[in-house]
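TA notes. Do not distribute before section.
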Amino acid sequence: MGLRYFGIRVTDLERSLDFYVGLLGLKEQRRGKMRHGGVWVLLADPRTRQRLELNWYPQGSPYATRYVPGDGLDHIGFTAKDPQAVFDRLVSKGVEPALKLEGEGGAKGIYYVKDPDGNWIEFFG
């Protein structure tokens, strides 16, 4: 298992891209659209290779909750050889599950649990 990136929620994707890409020099690696209409953009620092994922959710999305500055951490992403096994092991130890996206992100899917403070932790293959 390995820490791969941090995902933050943004309220205006273009404004955030202007800031992180235009002003801070991060480079866009890839982007995608979510089932509920949201958009994610993965950025990387060309010097350190650290990654940041910007997540924008449209009005009506179940994830478009009221935004409070400082509450923008969306999730922390970890890679795993078998993300479902990691998810199942953590849940069996009493960790609260958050979401399962079966069949997405590869054959094993994408799995989320909540840390003790309710922050979402993602596991993907």
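Switch to the second chain here.
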Amino acid sequence: MRVVIQRVKEAKVTVDNNCIGAIGKGYLILLGVGKEDTKEVVDKYVDKIMKLRIFSDEYGKTNLSIKDVEGEVLVVSQFTLYADCKKGNRPSFTDAAGVEKAIELYEYFLSSVKKQIGKVEAGQFGADMEVSLTNDGPFTIVLDESIIIN
């Protein structure tokens, strides 16, 4: 998996000019599923994401988690996180999971996050989406196998 987490003041996703998901303070999560990923890998990512302390406490220190601040989450599927640009100028996506597996693990990720956070919104898998956000900080974290699988 590859995950980009953006701490936001607000974020929304639209499809065909219709807002299908919107949140206030919380995380916009861009989620890429790899062909080697499993539910166990998803569990590790969700655990790490829920425990990240990237919100400020009363002293301005990043000591609070998404749960601590009762934040919201917007998850958008993004296979392009697996772009391989090593050869030529056209990215290859051979390391991204196939559609069936990607949908299964994307939905599993969503359900796992929903068990822990009050409001979770989602993009539409495979759709042409427009994502807008007000980044808070900006504060952006990238998680991949090198961070999670240790």
